[in-house]
Amino acid sequence: MDFSKRDKALDILVETLDREMPEGFAAVLYGSAARGDWDAAHSDINLLLVLEDAAPEALQRLMPAMRTWHDAGFTAPLLVSRAEWARSADVFPVELTDMRLAYRVLRGDDPVVGLEVKESDLRRAVEAALRGKLIRLRQAYARFGESMPTLGGFATATVSELLVLLRCIVVLKQREPGSTPASTIAALAPELGGAQAALEEVASHRRDPEWQCTPKVFAEYVESVRRLVEVVDAHSTGAA
């Protein structure tokens, strides 16, 4: 893993922002880089920038830094104003819940600690995302159910987002989400039942673009998502 390239790019970006945003900002690293699960070949760097001013005139000052960041091969950071961020917990409950599980403040004050995610907002958002994912996976299985390379592509393309949702479900269940995909999946073993093994297998290949998924494993992967939909749908706010 090329940590030196990642860390150098982060340093350059933050130092440039120090010069161009003298009014202040907060920079927060989250996701796999904060969990210690980052892989240079297959992982993005998830970065949140909370700006005092996010108007177009202020963003123009960020253009050179953003070009350098993009040229280094990294995904653009999230850009929000401080006022917008303070009112975002109800519309980004999944993202905020996952961020709170693993993040590191690189500059400025901590913009995460003061936000509270309502359990009802999180439950609703997780269920909506899971139901959408279940429909898309069923479509893929019905259309490409005999093509192992295609099924592998669909499985690996969807499992990272699914792991985010799993961590949120574990939070709803008031359990320990762990720091690895395996530990997160294990925390939901009672709910997943026999579909747990397929989900573990897909997660283990999430960084392998050449992986070929058998129709049987893909079908069980779809079943794991269906079970999770039922779990979240039946979850009562305030209940473990």
Task: Produce the secondary structure layout.
Layout: H1 3-20, E1 25-30, H2 32-35, E2 46-51, H3 56-60, H4 63-71, E3 78-81, H5 82-86, H6 93-101, E4 103-107, H7 119-144, H8 148-172, H9 181-187, H10 189-192, H11 196-204, H12 215-234
Give the key terms.
2 domains; four-stranded mixed sheet; 12 helices; 240 residues; Beta Polymerase, domain 2; alpha+beta
Description:
The protein has 240 residues and is an alpha+beta fold. It has two domains: 3-107, 2-Layer Sandwich (Beta Polymerase, domain 2); 119-234. The chain is 59% helix and 9% strand. It is built from twelve helices and four strands; from the N terminus they run αβαβααβααβαααααα. It has helices at residues 3-20, 32-35, 56-60, 63-71, 82-86, 93-101, 119-144, 148-172, 181-187, 189-192, 196-204, 215-234; strands at 25-30, 46-51, 78-81, 103-107. Strands 3-2-1-4 form a four-stranded mixed sheet. The model has no long low-confidence stretch (mean pLDDT 90).
